[in-house]
Amino acid sequence: MNQQNILKGPAGLGLLVLSAIVLVASFGYAFMSLSSQGHASFNTSSTLPWGQPIATYLYFALASSGLGMIASLPLVFGFKQFYPVVKRAIFLAFVILISGMAVLAMELGHVFRMIWVIPFNLQIQSAMFWMGVFYVADLIFLLWKLQKLENGEWDSKTSKQVGIGSFLAVLLASGNLALIFGMMSMRPFWFDGLLPIYFYLTAVASGLAALVFFTYLANGFSRDNMSASLQGLLDGALPKFFAAVLGGTLLFIAVRAITGLYTNNPEIYVVWRDYLFASSTYQASLWIGIVLPFVLMMMASVRTSTGTQVLVSILVFAGLFAERFFFVVGGQVVPLFKGTWEWSLIQYTPSATEWSLTLMGSALLFTLYVLGERMLNLSAEPPVTVGQASTSGGVAAHA
Amino acid sequence: MNVFQTLMSRRRFLKTSAAAGATGAAVAGAGGLTGFAPARQAHAQASRGQTVVTKNICAQCPARCGIDVYTTNGRVHAIYGDTGNPIANGKLCPKGHLGTYFLYDADRFKGPMKRTNPRKGRNEDPGFVPISWDEALDTVAARLNDLRDRGESHRFAHFYGRGWGASDAGLYGDWGKLYGTPNSAIGHASMCAEGSKRAKQMTDGNDSYNSYDYRNTNYILNFGASFLEAFRPYNYLMQVWGHMRSKSPKTRVTTIDVRMNPTMAASDRALYIKPGTDGAMALAIAHVLLTEGLWDREFVGDFREPDMRFRTGQRIPPFSFDEKWVHGLTEWWNEELKDRTPEWAESVTTISARDIVRVAREFGTTRPAMAIMERGPTAHTNGTYNGMAIHALNALVGCLFAEGGMFYQMGTPYGGLPVNADDYLDEWAKDGDWKKHPRIDKARTPEWPMTSHMMQEAGPNHLKGDPYKLDTAMFFYTNPIWTAPNPQVWEEALKDVFVIDTSPFPGETAMYADIVLPDHTYLERLQDSPTYPFEGWPMAAIRVPAVDPIYDTKHFGDTLIEIGKRIKGPMGEYYKAIDNVENVLRHRAKGFEANPGDNGVNSFETWKEKGVWFKKPYHWRQFRGEFFEWDGRGYNTPMTPEDVKAKLIKTPSGKFEFKSGRLEQNAAYIEREVGIPAARAGLIQWVEPKHSGEGDLYFVTPKTPLHAEGRSGNIPHAIANQQPIVGGRNTVYLEIHPDTARARNIRNGDKVRIKSNLGTIEAYCRYMPAHRPDTLVMPMEHGHWAQGRWAQGRLPGHSGELTANVSDPISGLACYYTGKVTVERA
Amino acid sequence: MAKWGMVIDLDKCTGCQACTTACAMENNTLPGESWQDVLYYHEGTYPSAQMKWLPRPCMQCENPSCVHVCPTRATYKDMDAGGIVFVDWDKCIGCKYCMIACPYGVRFYADEKPLLEPDLREIFPSSNGQLWSPPYQNPEQDWKRGIGIQPPGVVSKCTFCYHKVSKAPAGTVDLDEDIAEVKEYVPACVRTCPPKARFFGDLDQPTSQVNQLIGDKHGVRLKDHTGNKPQVYYLGAGAGVPAFEPKPRS
After folding, report:
1. Cβ(B247)–Cβ(B368) under 8 Å?
2. CB of B724 less than 8 A from some CB of A
3. Which of A42, A118, A266 comes nearest C244 by C-beta?
């Protein structure tokens, strides 16, 4: 059995139906509570305006960017061993970004107004404006690239140019996303010129987690279903790359934590001491969600096993989601200038509606992804690398 | 259980929708009422309609600030201070602006109602059903006529809290005389601040709060007067604070209080005193003023021999000191003051002797200087003596009736009523048996000889049937089932009394009402209000309705007159002649014709237009130990000692009495009740406070700036800004010193139980290291069980439920701040 | 055009919150939506503790970081309106980035959980696109400047009571409530301030009362290190904001 995409079969249909149901249910719940209570159904407030929906959006947007960057490895930088995952990566980047944007849309006060006021007012001073521009560009390039691959153009000149354009769009989009936070000098926990680098690293980490997980999912969590080249990637470059990226992420977290804890500025050290490190959830996400996966990926003996890789991808999934949440909320928990009215760190726990948005985003991602697996050949690889197991660019699993 | 909800659903809406239109409808339709959809209203116009400004008086505290009420298209939408009102001067305190909310309060009573459930209690639904005003008034009148026919008219009592003027509480006296009851009316003074009035009566003969010339003073020694929170008139006090603190020379302020508060924080020196010991501090300051020769010789007098001194612990010979405007200084020194050293006071008050000496020197060397006080020092069993000791300082530095000092309020030259009640007395009124009965509260009886009102005793007395049982009681602007100390007793007591409540709003007493005759809110009323003691010169403001009543309510004065019209005999005739509140006010305003105000007010119409009549200046002035009267151009007419005694210092001696003649007249009572030997009873002296409650911590329940009398527990914006000192937004926290809390294993933010021998209440606490470790502070606001949708169920519990019904035997002031409690984690 | 500025004298301020409630009623804000707030701080321990307070309107910054971040130009500094920073409720998309970027915490998204239950918005529900409709609503409204009661999903803030200020006669230098002719044009918080701790006027006029006070009493701007350059100045002791410190739990 080779190249068996289980998502094209009944399992895929089941997953599709399941995610569609979850999607409809979570969207329905969020929509109902938003239309009856407005944003009072969130636990965010004027003192802590950005909560879990923003963290979810950030998580999805960066995972998308990470996938875009991974896709650039073969398409722009010639790391051909990544060809077996590139199409899936691009498609995933596209649907994850769509899912993130859907969550953001539900978070905003007036999403439809956004569609015309941003272009009509051209506020180029605002990083938020550029976020719109770059992520739209990113989205277009992703589609374009996908269309090229769909047409089997793996190596053409335009394909290369589109790849480069896409890579730049990804860098700009995620780097600018980092600067939305990093340029806020009034929020010292975020204020950091190197934040884009941290975002790139964590983006790739979350992208890898998504890619590994969904690749295994498509192949029924069985190496036997995979192409040899894909197996080669999973046995060789990918886990090492994953280890390196997780190591970089850890390094960045460590450096931020050390400088944060060292400073006298309470708007930074209090966040690290009393919010992040005081939270068992944060501790768990750090140690189990990032450190443990790093250790596992560093161990040559276990990093290539299917179980390890799936486990690590899931752990990193969760770990980085928590990392995003604590990053977004952490920048706001120290009350700005409230005296006794806010006598301690601002308390924030997401509401059911906010969780439903996170769930909705995830369900949308799964739904779109399964649709993609079923309607496109996301396991497609360029003919050159396919070698013995030939396949066209079209549909078809090969028995 | 949910009395309030039921109450809401039984409201009438007819009048609502007709008179109030969309507004009333939207208000009434809120809160989950069934079968009543909120009316749609037009989007607010881009261009506003005609805006009308009417004059009114804020009703949220006793200050009586003149307000401008802004109404556009029939909606009141803003309140600002009236620039032409001498108290408001265009300004308002934080409460004033929230007045519009009172008008549109969704919880208001919307018309007269009667009770259908005969059982009364906290958990009993009164089963109110709407009735017509005619039915309501006829019911009450029939009951009163019947009572009178049975010869039991004394068993009817009026109770009132915030009386405003001639058009409401001013009608009580004639009512009692005509109807025949000693209980018209039982005022709330003994649950307010009677202690300072009595301290002044016993020393300078004026049973009154003071007027003050803050503008010209250079030193304020403030004993627990909550100057920047709740002292009257708060709004003006803040205005003058701005002036005092930026004028040349800047007025220095020393504040002595039992807790950190805005006044303490803003003062030059904040001294924390052990509750109930202010008298000791004042005596020690007096001791220093005398031993260091800092007293005002022109007012007080001086030794006959130039080398004489007051020396600590040593007596001075009789007749060695020539007293000028004071009486009893020699005996005071010899029998009390000579041993009241700062060191002694330190042991009593916990304020260091060093600080006491510093304060005394500053106070004695800065002129003009004044010592002010209010309920803080006087709401204790030794309250009158505390207050007298403080007021004695004013005599020692000669600020009485002086520029930058303090004096008393002149009355308003109102015109007479169209008819005289004395011409309408029938036989019963003139000579009925009712005259043999004391008041239900026994004020001014041998039990409380020096009091004026003892409302807190009325409930317990009724319960005991001593002196008799009440039959019917009518309440105006007072809610003793909640506000009286130990109100649990009142909850029992009023069960078998026919209760008539007149508040526009639901409240605990209203839940016991057999009939509700709701008043207008203040923005809908035509009502006068002579000033509380302010700057001495006479003033009377008036409320002009900003809008027609938006519900089926009636001015309390008109309710009273309408009931009067229905009483058989000449009383009914009298009230027919009085006719209505507007008629009363038109006649009162006639007094201005001969006395046009400084702002030109000389008639009812001009009064309504300007909102206030006032006529400066104050007529008397003490200048370097001599008294002068205003002659129209200046303080030019010298006053004889007889003039001074008649007009200003109304004591038996005609002088400021360090040895009070009035107290000496009650020496036997004082010996019995206070334990002071009769021979010493008149002396201003230190008396140990007796603390109730059986706990180990003092329990202070102050008013905050947002405490609107009786109502801010149900005003959203007031609740949200209630307690900034520790961030009490949604609740009022118990403020506790961290050491005190930790010793009891109480964490910051914990829910705690506060206990006295009377009961237990719950609260959330917050650490407040700026308070005394032996004192718990919990602003009095919440714990209502029937005041409205926001007030209900909001922690903390009601402090009154821990407060024993203990009163100062002399003033009768309920000792709200003298209870001690314990606290533990809940 | 004038450059409107406010001066707050902390030596006179009594921390009473009249500014807060005057603003709340003038602008019909919800409990907790304190466009104008007074912040309290206490430090030290009995018997030498201190308590201080700081009234805090929007600073109407010369260099407003909220304006820089707004992706839609919904929040803007209107130089033709004395430099007041407004929110155009027809353009605001409710992204709340300006709330993140404001160093002073003076922006509000009232479409949130109510501070107090029951919710005023349910007591006075709206049927006209506003978040709520109290019967005592100020008839003034101008959504292009964030005046009135906001629709759901937008950010609201202090407008220096532009609906009043804008009606002042041209050339007015001092908007002082004690000058009868301009009383009605003075911002609510300034007009009502009982100790007269607040002053309002034209910062571009060297002769204005506000400039005189800033000069004489060494006016300072809060958090000046942010570079936002507020048009609100503080006088007197107590303008320093204590560093944040979480209160001990036990």
Report:
1. no
2. yes
3. A266
Q: How many CA atoms lie within 13 A of B76 on its CB side?
A: 30
Q: C109 to chain A: which residues are within 8 Å by CB?
A: 39, 44-46, 49, 109
Structural domain includes residue A239: yes
How many CB atoms within 10 Å of residue B250? 12
Give how far C65 is from chain B: nearest CA, Å: 28
Report whether CATH 1.10.760.10 matches the domain C4-235: no
CATH topology of domain B212-406+656-661: Dimethylsulfoxide Reductase; domain 2 (3.40.228)
| Distance (Å, whole) CA A53 – CA B111 | 49
| Selection from B563, B518, B408 nearest residue B16 by Cα | B518
A342 touches chain B (CB under 8 A): yes
The stretches in chain A having pLDDT less than 70 are 1-3, 384-399
Residue at token pair 């009364």:
B120
Phi, psi of C234 (to 5 degrees): -115, 140
What is the span of the domain harbouring residue A292?
A: 6-385
Residues of chain C contacting B747 with CB distance shorter than 8 Å: 249-250
Residue B796 per-residue DSSP state? S
Q: Which of residues 79-108 of A touch C (CB under 8 A)?
A: 108
Q: What is the pLDDT of residues A14-35, one digit of tens each?
A: 999 999 999 999 999 999 999 9
Q: Give long-range contacts, CB 8 A cutoff, 24+ apart: B717-721.
A: B717/B98, B717/B101, B717/C21, B717/C24, B717/C25, B717/C31, B718/B95, B718/B98, B719/B790, B719/B794, B719/C31, B719/C116, B720/C31, B720/C32, B720/C115, B720/C116, B721/B94, B721/C17, B721/C20, B721/C21, B721/C31, B721/C34
Set of chain A residues whose Cβ sits within 8 Å of the Cβ of C69: 125-128
Q: Residue A3: its pLDDT value, please?
A: 54
The token pair at B726 is 């520790």
Q: If pLDDT is split at 50, 70 and 90, which confidence band does B38 have? A: very low
Query: Options 2.40.40.20, 1.20.1300.10, 3.40.50.10710, 3.40.190.150; which CATH number does B697-825 get?
Result: 2.40.40.20
Counting as contact any 3 or more CB pairs under 8 A, the partners of C are A, B
Whether A391 maps to a domain, the answer reads no
Per the CB < 8 A criterion, the answer to whether B225 and B218 are in contact is no
Task: State the Cα–Cα distance between residues B124 and C196, nearest whole angstrom.
Answer: 49
Tell me which chain B residue has its CA closest to the CA of residue A343: B727
Count of the separate structural domains present in chain A: 1
Is residue A393 included in any domain, yes or no? no
Measured between alpha carbons, how far is residue B754 from residues B728, B738, B820 in Å? 18, 16, 10
Answer whether B771 touches A (CB < 8 Å): no
Residues 99-158 of chain C whose Cβ lies under 8 A from any Cβ of chain B: 115-116, 118, 120, 122-125, 127-129, 133-142, 148
Tell me the Cα Rg of chain A.
21
- Cα B341 to the chain's mean position, in Å? 34
Decide yes or no: CATH 3.40.50.300 for domain B108-113+136-194+431-516+555-579.
no
* B790 touching C (Cβ < 8 Å): yes
Residues in B touching A341 (Cβ below 8 Å): 724, 727, 729
Task: Give the helix/strand (H/E) hosting B201.
Answer: helix B194-204
Which residues in chain B touch residue C34, judged by CB atoms under 8 angstroms apart?
A: 721
Domain boundaries, chain B: 1-47, 108-113+136-194+431-516+555-579, 212-406+656-661, 697-825
- Please say whether the beta carbons of C28 and C137 come within 8 A: yes
How much of chain B exceeds pLDDT 70, in percent?
94
**B729-771, pLDDT tens digit by residue?**
999 999 999 999 999 999 999 999 999 999 999 999 999 999 9
- What dihedral do alpha carbons A240, A246, A249, A250 form, nearest 10°? -120
Q: Residue B717 has which token pair? A: 């914006």
